[in-house]
């Protein structure tokens, strides 16, 4: 049987006229039996990259996808387009499952969606052997990376596909991979012969804005009313309670807002989602559970009222704005309290020390994005391994450059205090103790350890505790300091040598310095 032509499938099955970006090249490569690693931003059109080759090739395309809810949506959409698709997951009843298994065995399916954990369930490999496999697609492939932001242990088993089916092409796809994650997923999935397709992650129609948190709900209402009245948008919050409170407050302010989180009854969630998709100008206030697989092209804004846990998460969530390519905006308010709360959350979680450090690292990169004094887009693209070149002209920093404050001398004072205490007293402390030394605040420990005899004792009285906290946080955010362990013990990084000995400058946002609120324990 000859293969169907990808272009014919694109128009006849999906009703589109032309491929986008790298799609055609990826599809032809995989349809011809090659392995591929695809890095493409949210909304870039990853699904077609495996759906079309699966339809073109003989046999069934097996799609490993982590989200059961999403799986069903995809299968339903494919069936509507006339594609023979099915799914196997633990939420199905046995009868349904048997029917899908039979259809697969008898070669009736073009696509079969599987949750990765199914692969290790008894009988699954045997079942797959009884049919003919066109390809394996590994969606959200960054989940295999232990140092990524969304590790899922079940993904580790997917490396075995290379040995079990050495002749079946495999395509791994993700919208969020830093260069390190890209390398790791290639290795762990044994994709050493794959071609790599890396699209630009830039979303030029999205404007990025991040501002200090004061009265966040009022700020949010102002943002929506004054700049996006009557437009569709998503507001992300971290907890269910905050989702509900915020939705209620927006409604009081006359904004058509609906809450969405995993704790709501299914009907209510479904109703919220349907209204958002079908009506104009609905604002969904949601936890991050909302948005995956929701394909609404004209979302005009995405707002965050809590700090996301990673730049990857932030980029994925903000990426849901403006899929239609029209001007869209993302807005976030962040404050010291966010950082403190998230660090505490991480430190009290039951992950091992390495996993916690990994999460703190992700959080610090997120903080660095908030505090950057350069173009936000340049920062974001560089984070994902892309050299962006010029400032973008479409982010808050470019449009309204922050006032800067030269923090070189305070940074040097702080760094040398830490270095001295470690060298001369053999001790490490958290931020609070170092700030006490700088401000010359005595204590039992200070006299016991003779901290008051250090040459940096009292040389930082010109700054308040809150301002020193701001300096500490900035140095952590920019990778000059590390905060370690349960107590947040401070340690200078290799990069700090440039500031201490190499004449490098440290510049901070003046507003960070001026901020009084939340002075307790910013960087802990
Ligand atoms: P991703 O998985 O990369 O986030 P999707 O595969 O969900 O993106 O695609 C995003 C949207 O773009 C979907 O509505 C999809 O139908 C549409 N799309 C994808 N490829 C094309 C194309 N070549 N022409 C027109 N629309 C497309
Ligand atoms: Zn910019």
TrEMBL record:
Q: Which InterPro entries match?
A: DEAD/DEAH_box_helicase_dom, DNA_helicase_ATP-dep_RecQ, DNA_helicase_ATP-dep_RecQ_bac, Helicase_ATP-bd, Helicase_C-like, HRDC-like_sf, HRDC_dom, HRDC_dom_sf
What is the E.C. number? 5.6.2.4
Q: Which reaction does it catalyse?
A: Couples ATP hydrolysis with the unwinding of duplex DNA by translocating in the 3'-5' direction
Q: Which Pfam families match?
A: DEAD, Helicase_C, HRDC, RecQ_Zn_bind, RQC
Looking up PROSITE patterns in the UniProt record yields: HELICASE_ATP_BIND_1, HELICASE_CTER, HRDC
Keyword Coiled coil appears in the UniProt entry: no
Q: Does the keyword Metal-binding apply?
A: yes
- List, for all copies, the residue spans of the domain called Helicase C-terminal: 216-364
Main EC class the enzyme belongs to: isomerase
Instruction: State the needed cofactors, names only.
Output: Mg(2+); Zn(2+)
Q: Which UniProt keywords apply?
A: ATP-binding, DNA damage, DNA recombination, DNA repair, DNA-binding, Helicase, Hydrolase, Isomerase, Metal-binding, Nucleotide-binding, Zinc
Residue ranges constituting the Helicase ATP-binding domain according to the UniProt record: 27-195
Q: Name one GO molecular function term.
A: helicase activity
What family is this protein classified in?
A: Belongs to the helicase family. RecQ subfamily.
Q: How is this protein named in the record? A: DNA helicase RecQ
Q: What is the lineage of its organism?
A: Bacteria, Bacillati, Actinomycetota, Actinomycetes, Micrococcales
């Amino acid at each position: 049987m000859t293969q169907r032509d990808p272009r014919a499938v694109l128009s006849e099955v999906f009703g589109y006229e032309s491929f986008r970006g790298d799609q055609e090249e990826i599809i032809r490569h995989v349809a011809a039996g090659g392995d591929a690693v695809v890095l493409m931003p949210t909304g870039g059109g990853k699904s077609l990259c495996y759906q079309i080759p699966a339809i073109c090739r003989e046999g069934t395309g097996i799609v490993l996808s982590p989200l059961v809810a999403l799986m069903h949506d995809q299968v339903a959409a494919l069936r509507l387009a006339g594609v023979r698709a099915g799914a196997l997951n633990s939420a199905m009843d046995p009868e349904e499952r048997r029917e899908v298994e039979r259809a697969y065995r008898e070669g009736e399916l073009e696509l079969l969606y599987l949750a990765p954990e199914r692969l290790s369930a008894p009988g699954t490999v045997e079942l797959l052997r009884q049919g003919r496999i066109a390809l394996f697609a590994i969606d959200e492939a960054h989940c295999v990376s232990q140092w990524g932001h969304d590790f899922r242990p079940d993904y580790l088993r997917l490396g075995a596909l290379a040995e079990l089916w050495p002749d079946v092409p495999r395509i791994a796809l993700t919208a969020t991979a830093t260069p390190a994650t890209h390398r790791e997923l290639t290795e762990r999935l044994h994709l050493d012969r794959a071609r790599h397709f890396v699209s630009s992650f830039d979303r030029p129609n999205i404007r990025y804005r991040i501002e200090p948190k004061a009265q966040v709900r009022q700020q949010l209402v102002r943002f929506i009313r004054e700049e996006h009245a009557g437009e569709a948008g998503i507001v992300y919050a971290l907890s269910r309670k905050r989702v509900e409170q915020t939705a209620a407050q927006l409604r009081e302010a006359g904004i058509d807002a609906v809450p969405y989180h995993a704790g709501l009854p299914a009907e209510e969630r479904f109703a919220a989602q349907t209204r958002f998709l079908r009506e104009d100008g609905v604002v969904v206030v949601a936890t991050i559970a909302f948005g995956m697989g929701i394909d609404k092209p004209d979302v005009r804004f995405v707002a965050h009222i809590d700090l996301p846990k990673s730049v990857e998460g932030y980029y994925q969530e903000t990426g849901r704005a403006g899929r239609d390519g029209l001007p869209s905006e993302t807005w976030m308010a962040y404050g010291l309290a966010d950082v403190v709360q998230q660090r505490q959350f991480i430190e009290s979680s039951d992950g091992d020390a390495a996993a916690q450090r990994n999460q703190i690292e992700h959080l610090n990169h997120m903080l660095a994005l908030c505090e950057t004094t350069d173009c936000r887009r340049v920062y974001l693209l560089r984070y994902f391994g892309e050299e962006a070149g010029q400032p973008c002209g479409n982010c808050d920093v470019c449009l309204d450059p922050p006032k800067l404050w030269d923090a070189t001398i305070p940074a040097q004072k702080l760094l040398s205090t830490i270095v001295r205490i470690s060298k001369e007293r053999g001790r490490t402390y958290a931020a609070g103790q170092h700030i006490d030394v700088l401000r010359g605040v005595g204590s039992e420990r200070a006299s016991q350890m003779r901290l008051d005899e250090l040459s940096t004792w009292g040389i930082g009285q010109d700054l308040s505790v809150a301002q020193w906290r701001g300096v500490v946080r900035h140095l952590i955010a920019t990778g000059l300091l590390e905060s370690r362990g349960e107590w947040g013990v401070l340690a200078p990084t290799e990069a700090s040598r440039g500031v201490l000995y190499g004449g490098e400058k440290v510049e901070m946002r003046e507003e960070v310095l001026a901020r009084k609120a939340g002075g307790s324990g910013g960087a802990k």
